[in-house]
Amino acid sequence: MSINKFTSTILFVLFSLVAFVSALPVHIARDVWDPPIISPNATTVWIVGQKYNVTWNTTNPPSQITNTVGRVVLAANGLEDYENPLAANFSILLGSIEVTCPNVTAGNDYAIVLFGDSGNFSPNFTITN
Ligand SMILES: *[C@@H]1O[C@H](CO)[C@@H](O)[C@H](O)[C@H]1NC(C)=O
Ligand SMILES: *[C@@H]1O[C@H](CO)[C@@H](O)[C@H](O)[C@H]1NC(C)=O
Ligand SMILES: *[C@@H]1O[C@H](CO)[C@@H](O)[C@H](O)[C@H]1NC(C)=O
Ligand SMILES: *[C@@H]1O[C@H](CO)[C@@H](O)[C@H](O)[C@H]1NC(C)=O
Ligand SMILES: *[C@@H]1O[C@H](CO)[C@@H](O)[C@H](O)[C@H]1NC(C)=O
Ligand SMILES: *[C@@H]1O[C@H](CO)[C@@H](O)[C@H](O)[C@H]1NC(C)=O
């Protein structure tokens, strides 16, 4: 094999490899899943210090979920307290997680945010003491 023939063979193999690799999908598609929160909802009243189940609808989860690790966060007036979750590190496929109502000022503009893939807000509900 001449040097030129050898070089062009190498080049052909390299170009073929590049073409093959760029034809591959960049990543396997995964589904973003935001299961709706069932409770708390607009009729819910929580009392400070009491235990409640946050529940969400797990009907028809996609087969591939980007992030199955759940986190439940309280939001006051639309502001999430992400750093102080009411629950974390549970499977989002559970459909329910028990939390203790934190000692916050009474109000009717609280919401629960359920994180997995991304944050999903409950309706606003009431907390009393
Ligand atoms: C709303 O939340 C309450 C608990 O706070 C629950 O008992 C009720 O079933 C929920 N309503 C609906 C429509 O899911
Ligand atoms: C939350 O749900 C679990 C499982 O259904 C149940 O054992 C527990 O008593 C519930 N907690 C409250 C505070 O309702
Ligand atoms: C859960 O979602 C399914 C559809 O995805 C719906 O048929 C069902 O009624 C929902 N259940 C509750 C308790 O909201
Ligand atoms: C909950 O209350 C906040 C603050 O008042 C408001 O910005 C938000 O739109 C309300 N959310 C819903 C779902 O009504
Ligand atoms: C969740 O897991 C992370 C990493 O393992 C840990 O740093 C964090 O404290 C855990 N949070 C809770 C509420 O268990
Ligand atoms: C909540 O906090 C207030 C003031 O910090 C305190 O007086 C009250 O006893 C607390 N309530 C509970 C249920 O821990």
From TrEMBL:
Taxonomy, superkingdom: Eukaryota
Where does the secretion signal sit in this chain?
Answer: 1-23
**InterPro entries, alphabetized:** Kre9/Knh1-like_N
The entry's keywords:
Signal
What range(s) does the Yeast cell wall synthesis Kre9/Knh1-like N-terminal domain occupy? 39-127
Q: What name does the UniProt record give this protein?
A: Yeast cell wall synthesis Kre9/Knh1-like N-terminal domain-containing protein
